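Action item from last meeting closed. Structure (299 res):
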C-alpha cells in the first residue's frame, strides 16, 4: 500500500507543474517516454539521466518555478529504463542507439539547439550523440558527475584493491537476474548516490524506479565501453562540468581530467556533496544551470 501512496504523491506533485507526456520513436523504433514542461518559447534544456535511473531523477528541476518560467524543460526515460521500451539484446545498447535516441527526442520536441544536461552514464550517452551528430544542433553541455572517455577507454578496474573489488562486485550484483540479490545491490547503489542520506520517502521512490531497469539492461550497459579519444577538440560548444568532491560513484578526478580535455570548459565543484548534486543541492544547481543556459544561448 505504501508503494501506491508514494507513487500517487509523486505523480500529483509533478502533474501540479503541468508535465506533458509523449512517446517518441527512438533509434530502431524503440519507444521512449518523453516529458516536457515550462516555457516552450524559452531556451531548451534536455536532461539525460544516469544508469538505472528515470526522468524522475530530475523532479527538483522539473518542478522549479524559476526554471519553469524561463526555460523549456525536457527529460526522458532512456531505453531500458522507466516506462520506455526495454529491448533485450546487448546490440540495442550501442553508441548508435544512445546517440540516435537523443537526436530523436530533440527532433520530436521541435528543439534545434537545446543545452544537454547529462548525469553520470548520461555522459557517454551524450558523447554518443556528439559522435554521430556533432555539436551544431546543441547550445552547450552541463556535464554532471559523468565520464566522457575523451581520454580513451576506461582501464579495467584494479581488482587487487579490496575496496574497488567490493564496489565492482556490488555493481555486478545489480545485473543478477536473482531479484533478491539484485534488490540488495540496488539499495546499496541508491544509498551511494548522495553524501548525506535523503529523506526516507525520497529514497524509497528512487529505489522503486531503479528497479524498473531489468538486470539484462544493466548488463548490456556495462558492456558498452566507449573510446572517445578521437572526439577531443570537437566539442566546441560551452561546457559546464558539475561534480561533488565526495562522489562515491564517479571519482571527482574524472571531472578534473575532463576539464583538461575540453578547451574553455568550466568546473563547478560541490564541496561535501556526492554523486547527485541536483538532488543534494538543488537550489545551487538550478541557479547555476539557468545562468549557464542563458550564457550559452547568447554566444
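Sequence:
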Amino acid at each position: 500500500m505504501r508503494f501506491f501512496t508514494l507513487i500517487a504523491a509523486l505523480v500529483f506533485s509533478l502533474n501540479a507543474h503541468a508535465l506533458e507526456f509523449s512517446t517518441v520513436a527512438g533509434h530502431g523504433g524503440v519507444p521512449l517516454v518523453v516529458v516536457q514542461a515550462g516555457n516552450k518559447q524559452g531556451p531548451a534544456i534536455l536532461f539525460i539521466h544516469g544508469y538505472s535511473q528515470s526522468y524522475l531523477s530530475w523532479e527538483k528541476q522539473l518542478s522549479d518555478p524559476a526554471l519553469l518560467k524561463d526555460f523549456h524543460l525536457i527529460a526522458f526515460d532512456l531505453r531500458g529504463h522507466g516506462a520506455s521500451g526495454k529491448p533485450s539484446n546487448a546490440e540495442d545498447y550501442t553508441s548508435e542507439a544512445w546517440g540516435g535516441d537523443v537526436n530523436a527526442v530533440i527532433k520530436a520536441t521541435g528543439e534545434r539547439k537545446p543545452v544537454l544536461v547529462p548525469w553520470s552514464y548520461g555522459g557517454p550517452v551524450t558523447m554518443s550523440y556528439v559522435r554521430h551528430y556533432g555539436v551544431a544542433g546543441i547550445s552547450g553541455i552541463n556535464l554532471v558527475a559523468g565520464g566522457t572517455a575523451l581520454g580513451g577507454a576506461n582501464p579495467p578496474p584494479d581488482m587487487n584493491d579490496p575496496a574497488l573489488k567490493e564496489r565492482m562486485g556490488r555493481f555486478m550484483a545489480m545485473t543478477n537476474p536473482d531479484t533478491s540479490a539484485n534488490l540488495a545491490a540496488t539499495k546499496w547503489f541508491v544509498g551511494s548516490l548522495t553524501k548525506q542520506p535523503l529523506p526516507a520517502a525520497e529514497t524509497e521512490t528512487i529505489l522503486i524506479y531503479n528497479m524498473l531497469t531489468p538486470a539484462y539492461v544493466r548488463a548490456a550497459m556495462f558492456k558498452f565501453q566507449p573510446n572517445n579519444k578521437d572526439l577531443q577538440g570537437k566539442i566546441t560548444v560551452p561546457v559546464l562540468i558539475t561534480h561533488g568532491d565526495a562522489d562515491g560513484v564517479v571519482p571527482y578526478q574524472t571531472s578534473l581530467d575532463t576539464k583538461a580535455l575540453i578547451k574553455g570548459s568550466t568546473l563547478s565543484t560541490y564541496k561535501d556533496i556526492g554523486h547527485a548534486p541536483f538532488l543534494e543541492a538543488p537550489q545551487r544547481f538550478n541557479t547555476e544551470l539557468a545562468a549557464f543556459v542563458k550564457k550559452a544561448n547568447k554566444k
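Note appended to the action item: The domain at 2-296 is CATH 3.40.50.1820 (Rossmann fold).
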